[in-house]
Amino acid sequence: MIYDVRQTTTCAYASPVAHARHVLRLTPVHRDGQRVHVAALQILPEPVHRREGQDFFGNRLTWIEIEEPHDTLTVRLAARVAVDAPLEPEPMATPPWETVREQAFATSDIGPLSPAHFLFASRMVSLDPEIRDYTRESFPPGRPILDAAIALIHRLKSDIVYEIGATTVTTTPPMSFALRRGVCQDFAHIMISGLRGLGLPALYVSGYLRSAPATDATRLQGSEAMHAWVMLWCGGAIGWLGLDPTNAVLAEEAHVMLAVGRDYTDVAPVDGVILGSGGQRMGVSVSVLPVS
What is this structure's pTM? Predict the structure, then answer.
């Protein structure tokens, strides 16, 4: 499936900002099963300095510096991205989860997507014992890893209410798990905490969902905005598989990847420092439309 992706990110400031430096993670890149035909960022006000690069995980970074006073920062993404239908293994044919755990801890690979980088606590994801025990209910001894993971995402969707405004970008997994409320970031962080608590490698994905009218029965929760889901390492023979706990589905053609990391802090779309006072408000609009 080929998509035209449009995203507008707006940061509105309570008072004019005299100077700003930002790092943007808003440009998709080629990944397994995904090809970027073209991608461009328009930034207003025009930066006086701008450079491109990538981080350790292969995410595209854009560093900008703005010297003129401004009360709004606007970043527009226009991209055309092709997403292949994933080849999904039969869940019951995947290895027992304990075998995957053993392989992960025995790996000598230290490349960007090595399972070794996604086994432990990270800045926003602690290894919470309550979340671990909740996750363990889906992972009895000997259960195939993908079968167990699918059971887990169905439980998360059933037990946690999707509620915009119940949490913020700084809410930790134990807090959102205790509330049993949150948005896609919280669903992903809770799932990652539980999987890593069992010794299973799990990474955080930011991206988009295919747009659909509100009346469309196939519309996924979190479309028309940035979305987040999880990738679970299922052993050396299978590799990474995407799971969307917000919607209790495997990540498929409807999911467009933007950036990956250990948690949200590795993929934050806009980061940096400003010279100004007062609060700020961020707005995001997203459109992901199939190309006829």
Answer: 0.94
